[in-house]
Amino acid sequence: MIVVSTTISLCITLGTILFMENRQRVKDRKMSALVVTGSIEQFTRDLEFISNELAYSDTLGTWLLSLTEEEIELLSPEQQSQFMNDVTLVNHLASDKTVERIFSSHIDTWKNMGNFRFVNNVGQSFSMMDMVEKKRNTQVVRLSDLSELIVDYLEKYEGNSILAKHLNDSQMRHNISRIHLWREWLNYIASTLYYLNNQNISLVDISRKELNAFTDELSKEITIKEPISSDIELDIPDLDASNLPSMEYYSNYLDSVKRSQPHR
After folding, report:
1. Whole-prediction pTM value?
2. Which of 24, 48, 28 lies closest to 219 in space, CA to CA?
3. pLDDT score for 239
4. Exposure string (b/e) for 57-95, b if CB count within 10 Å is 16 or more?
5. CA 135 → CA 92, 105, 132, 140, distances in Å?
6. Which pLDDT belongs to residue 6?
7. Dihedral angle over CA of 166, 170, 176, 178, nearest 10
8. Rounded distance between C-alpha atoms, residue 162 and residue 69, angstroms
């Protein structure tokens, strides 16, 4: 009777230990999956931020391209400089390579979990993130270098001001006219990553609410990029897709500048 009771006790104890260990493994897996999906979610949010930034740059750039030389001269040097910077100086795109490296270096561990679809989705997401980051940052550097070249050799470009010289350069006009294409492409990438990540969290029993909360905490540890600022007296709203300055806004602004000029 004593032997039987001892055996039963040992079995219960061993079963409890195994249950607790398995419970901890499940918890660890979920946290690991949260770190991975949170990294993808944060990158998607960064894409959305830059998309809003580009929406502003596109509207402003389209308006600038429509100006005549006489209209450009109505703007003060400070305004011209600020407008040009808002179009040519944009944020780089950066993802957290640490999480990607950890995921890649432990790929066999992830595969041993048996969720191959999760592994494939995450691998596809990271590859897409690397691709868009490289392409976008190459364009950012190209645009910045072109602007610096114009500033360094002003005498080679037509126009009576720095802004006019920028807008008279065919490469610069081409880049400005294509801003909306970059925005559409980034929106497509963001939508694809969001779709893949929704699949990811469903595969590892993570809710959208849990992922959002985790990513919010992750964002607190990151230096938040400020929207494009302006030192001139323009009431430009925050870069929210639903509340961006329109072409009409800039046209009305230019009209107000014209009305403020003394009659000749």
Report:
1. 0.74
2. 48
3. 42
4. bbbbbbbbeebeeeebeebeeebbbbbbebbbebbebeb
5. 11, 25, 5, 9
6. 45
7. -170
8. 12
User: Taking the CA of residue 78 as centre, how many other CA atoms within 13 Å lie in the half-sphere pointing to its CB?
Assistant: 5
Q: Which of 163, 133, 134 lies closest to 150, judged by CA?
A: 163
Q: Are 163 and 81 contacting, i.e. CB atoms less than 8 angstroms apart?
A: yes
Please state, as a whole number, how many other Cβ atoms lie within 10 Å of the Cβ of residue 254.
17
Query: Left (φ > 0), alpha (ψ -120 to 50) or beta: where does 97 sit?
Result: alpha
Q: Which of 55, 61, 82, 63 is nearest to 249 (CA)?
A: 63
| Helix 116-152 with 77-88: angle, nearest 10 deg | 150
User: Which residues does the chain have with pLDDT short of 70?
Assistant: 1-28, 107-114, 221-264
Per-residue pLDDT at 77: 87
Contact 211, 83 (CB under 8 A): no
pLDDT score, position 111: 67
Q: How many CB atoms lie within 10 A of CB 212?
A: 12
Query: Rounded distance, CA 62 to CA 176, Å?
Result: 7
Neighbour-count burial of 144, counting CB atoms closer than 10 A to its CB (0-12 exposed, 13-18 middle, 19+ buried)? middle
Helices assigned H by DSSP within the chain: 2-65, 69-73, 77-88, 97-105, 107-112, 116-152, 162-167, 170-177, 179-203, 208-220, 247-260
CA distance to 14, 57, 137, 144, per residue, from 183 (Å): 58, 10, 14, 18
Three-class DSSP category at 55 = helix
Per-residue pLDDT of 104-115, as tens digits, reads 777 666 666 667
